[in-house]
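Sequence dictates fold. Below is an illustrative record:

_____
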Amino acid sequence: MNPEALYRISYGLYVVSSHLDGRPNGQIANTVFQVTSDPVMVAACLNKQNLTHEYVSKSGVFSVSVLERQTPMTFIGRFGFRSGRDFDKFDGVDFFWGKSGAPVVKEHAIAYIEARVVDRMDVRSHTLFVGEVVEAEVLGEGEPLTYADYHYLKKGKTPKTATVYFRD
């Protein structure tokens, strides 16, 4: 199998966030998509090893912040390559508590979506969380950061917990 074929699927790059007992956590995710229009529902796929997965599972809410193309690698690294078990990812980050109760990252975001989990699907290493959208707003102008931009323009790496990671 040639993994290059799978790399041709278009993705965005997002911060998916949730909370547990008032403690926020978030992670970089590339597998977020709208699944229905009436009611409006989105899905986010999260690795079971990630703290954000635990928070979404227990709180039943999540937010998705759509990152701008100019998002610096240090910001992506904060949410993508560090564990919330060891580090407060929200310390010093511009965010607010949304209508759903989930934290919403504003910094480097051009839009956000909040959802309440209505279903989930076990996909072995990950869970696909389906949420009914309770709020969505545009925060600013600009182009969304794509996964291709992250790899080809920013020379970003992929952690082993990502949905698109391939072992050699």
Q: What stands out?
A: The chain has a mean pLDDT of 92. Strands lie at 14-20, 23-29, 32-37, 40-47, 61-67, 95-97, 103-105, 109-123, 126-138. Residues 51-59 form the longest helix (9 residues).
